[in-house]
Design a protein that fits this description.
By secondary structure, this protein is of the alpha/beta class. The protein contains twelve helices and 14 strands. Helix 1 links the parallel strand 1 and strand 2.
């Protein structure tokens, strides 16, 4: 197949980009002709520049080239000339073209048949308050074959948008990048978190839970990493061991230093850090966002109430008070669960989903009202 992925905001180290890069590279290795195209990052507005100057931070320089998951893959990746919609002229003819974000779905919907059957990779329900909700929701009604990364998204597309012919392809974890040998509990009780000031990521919940648990667990240690420097609006506890933009090959070491990893998202498409931590034999304490309800089953972690730092603090205490044997059993359960999700399996399912998109397009049923089932492949 000739496959085109259309992206919206350059190439970066965010989890959603990791997923696209993995599929692009693995599909290329399977013999497909793959091309990835994106518009550049959005330049700062004049207001943002003025505010930055008034704060004494200087003029915001936008480096279009930044570290990304696409840096070392053998797939042609192109950024168009400026921040604008991607059009026919930017894309090669293909068998299938994949939208990866709500704006790209609008662009892909307008493409001619020569650009391929239209698929829509849905990694989140992007109805955030900073986005135009009606336009976002409209993209889920477009006549494209939907591919979702988590069961809750497949269910949502069915129930809220009336499309019952959805390919469910759960995300996975690179078990070569994320791995750790068997171990016992840490000498000093330790928990970790991915730091993000984005409200929907819920980092404030994890930090509050840590502070509460630290009142009952002597010397409780916090490890954190993130792509942004800590913000004054969301300060880290003074003793936090924070790593800013850690190299990808060091993430497993950060995960493996912890007795538990905290996942407190208010809203999440999937939640890749859950699988990454579990693959490093670290149990996860998580809110029921994204794929957490499925991933934290079978004793692989602890599911806590949403918006409830007190409940998360109690779970931290619970995990830290486990006996060595009990903790190792939970660690092994987390590891086994993560190993059951492989990118080889996911790529095969994704490949089948793309063939389904082509077949539906050729039959002319993508605009049909006969949407009868979720395809879990």
């Amino acid at each position: 197949m000739k496959i085109t992925f259309v992206m919206a905001s350059g190439f970066s180290l965010v989890g959603g980009d990791r997923v696209i890069a993995v599929y692009a590279e693995r599909l290329k290795k399977r013999g497909h002709d793959v091309f990835v195209v994106s518009r550049p990052r959005r330049p700062p507005s004049l207001r943002q520049q003025v505010r930055s100057l008034l704060r004494g931070s200087g003029w915001i320089s936008v480096a279009q080239r930044q570290p990304s998951h696409f840096d070392n893959i053998d797939v042609p990746c192109q950024v168009i000339d400026r921040y604008r919609p991607i059009t026919e002229q930017d894309l090669p003819d293909a068998d299938v073209v994949v939208a990866t974000w709500w704006e790209t779905a609008e662009w892909v919907a307008k493409l001619s048949p020569s650009k391929g059957a239209k698929a829509y990779l849905i990694q989140h329900h992007e109805t955030h308050d900073y986005l135009p909700t009606e336009r976002v929701e409209g993209t889920y009604l477009l006549p494209m074959h939907k591919i979702t990364v988590a069961k809750w998204l497949a269910d949502l597309v069915c129930t809220q948008y009336g499309d019952r012919h959805v390919s469910l392809v759960p995300n996975s974890v690179d078990i070569e990048q994320f791995d750790a040998p068997p171990r016992g509990k840490q000498p000093i009780p330790t928990v970790g978190v991915v730091y993000s000031p984005a409200y929907w990521k819920g980092c404030d919940i994890s930090l509050k839970a840590f502070s509460l648990a630290a009142q009952k667990i002597p010397h409780l240690r916090l490890i954190a990493f993130g792509n942004q420097a800590p913000s004054q609006n969301l300060p880290l506890p003074p003793s936090t061991e924070y790593t800013h933009q850690p190299p990808q090959n060091t993430l497993k070491d950060l995960y493996a230093q912890c007795d538990a990893w905290l996942f407190s998202s208010r809203s999440e498409g999937f939640g890749l850090p859950i699988l990454e931590a579990m693959a490093c034999r670290t149990p996860v304490i998580g809110t029921p966002a994204g794929a957490a309800p499925e991933l934290l089953s079978d004793g692989a972690g602890v599911l806590v109430k949403p918006e409830d730092p007190e409940d998360m603090a109690r779970a931290i205490e619970q995990v830290c008070k486990l006996s060595e044997r009990e903790w190792q059993a939970m660690s092994e359960a987390a590891y086994a669960k993560a190993r059951s999700y492989t990118w080889d399996d996911a790529t095969e399912r994704f490949e089948v989903a793309l063939h389904t998109a082509i077949e539906r397009w050729q039959r002319g049923d993508l605009s049909s009202s006969d949407r009868s089932r979720i395809v879990s492949i």
